[in-house]
Structure prediction request, 250 residues.
Amino acid sequence: MTSPNQALLAPLIYYDLLMRPLTALEIFKYLRAGGPEISFFDAWRELKAAKPLKDLVQQKNGLYFLSGRENLIVIRQKRLKLAQLKWKKVKKIGQYLALVPFLRLVAITGSLTSYNTTLPSDFDLLVVIKKNRLWLGRLWLTGLVGLLGQRRHGHLTQDKICLNCYLTEANLEITAQAKPRDWHAAQEYGRLTPVLEIKKGVYKNFIQANAWLADFLKNYPWPNNINAKKIRPPVIFNLIRLIFERLLNG
Prediction:
């Protein structure tokens, strides 16, 4: 098997473990770093023509999967529909988070970013808070999520908020101590999708601070992530947040 074939096979094997077949564009998007240089059109031709791949990979309805795993197509369709509903829910909740003082960015991680959710799936959030206001911002955020009845508790996970990562504007890097730097972590944070960017530019700063992701993902960053799911909260929410920030700053 040639190097291009091996490069194209790696994302298919990884996402097979997650029960998700991929489009040709997704395969190209998720290529490992360090492999041979290959354009999207070269990748597409390899997927269609390379005999070693044909023995290991099947294609149907524009989706590629390991041989014998055609059942994943139906699973993808069901999870896609479910994820679309969950995106609507999390964006609705996200509007209220704009009330939280010193909040600067809310982004989604986890299965929702790949539209691969199951019914019990929660909403994994990465949150960025103003420098020197982490604990105060965290307190307000946790309180508001609880007040809204949206906080994850024990086995109560479906469509609940899991505040699983807090950062500040001054420290946007996902460190090796916080998360092992491997292809799995790179996939998770590479797919990170901002939904609420209160301070413009914070997400781009996050990308720059986590340049290590490109050590694992050949085609990172993915430009369509920047504005794909951003919401615009009501102006009154932004005004209330600013008032609280001034009061808390003394």
About this structure: The chain has two domains: 3-70, 78-249.
